[in-house]
Amino acid sequence: MINKENIVEIENLSIHYKMKNCTLKAINNVSLNIKKGKITALVGESGCGKTTLSTGIINCITSPGEIVAGEIKFFDDDEVINVEKLNAKEINAFRWEKVSMVFQGAQSSLNPLMTIEKQFMETMRVHRKKITKQEMLDKIYEVLKIVNLDADRILKMYPHELSGGMKQRVMIAFSLLLDPKLIILDEPTTALDVITQDYIFSILLKINREMNISMLLLTHDIGVVANYSDYVAVMYAGQVMEYGPVEEIFDDKIHPYTRGLINSTPSLIADLNTMKSIEGMPPNLLNLPTGCPFNPRCKRKNEICEKENPCLSNINNEHYFRCHLKLEDLRNEGNN
């Protein structure tokens, strides 16, 4: 039976980087649903596993990383695709056509020796063997119009002739080229000024709402999550610590790490004295602490936190958190 609500279901996924003398556990038993037609954000400090999880969805994990457990299901209109079981030919068809990804620092993905037009056409020829040149141009003009770029001008240019914001919009146009059902965006506005960032996110929001394309947004910016996402998963040490609708997470933030992230976000109108940093440092993924990975930084930890890793607990149908403490105790702590 095809799932009508989720476009991706990740179940008990673990991704490890096995090296000669050690193993880096980047993703540890993650279960997560990505909703159809919605924007789901992955938020957390650098090194928490956001990029590794997203590359796992397109089966594009950098060596020596590998999926050691779990499964990734992609729900198309009339089929269920087990991503981790695809062979090389099937993976090439799956990427771009079903799921596309705009990588962090996507400007470096452009070939500096080719015009934008040639790069678009090269991508289309690889995936659409029988397409005519006019059909390619029609599609290229269509996607460039969506991101508010003048195709007649842009297509003849080389990457170095474009500004940072224009390059980013070109890469978003690339991600739309083969009509994917899901777009993964890894820090899509890194190194851009705030005005350009807001402009690009307004384009992404328009694409999502008008074209019904699902999106997975990777970010460490809580403000971006609040303004542009429908759902949010808070990641720490390769695990999902809390997940739910954005409004509910901000109104009823349960996990101590979620509260820490939100309380440490600067505001133009709030008193800076109310800001609180999260004490301590993220754990070493080569040597994760026993029990809950957040316990060395948690002021509320108890004996069981240092011995056992908690399971996800369900607050309602869509809101989950991972903590040994009782829900009412966590809520009381958040109000103090």
Can you give keywords for this protein?
12 strands; single chain; 4-stranded antiparallel beta sheet; globular; 2 domains; Rossmann fold; 11 helices; alpha/beta; 32% helix; 8-stranded mixed beta sheet; 336 residues
Structure characterization notes:
The protein is 32% helix and 24% strand. The chain is α/β, with parallel strands linked by helices. The chain has 2 domains: 6-98 and 180-335, Rossmann fold (3-Layer(aba) Sandwich); 112-179, no CATH class. The strands form 2 sheets. It has an 8-stranded mixed β-sheet with strand order 6-7-8-3-9-10-12-11, sandwiched between helices. The chain has a 4-stranded antiparallel β-sheet with strand order 2-1-4-5, covered by helices on one side. The mean pLDDT is 90.
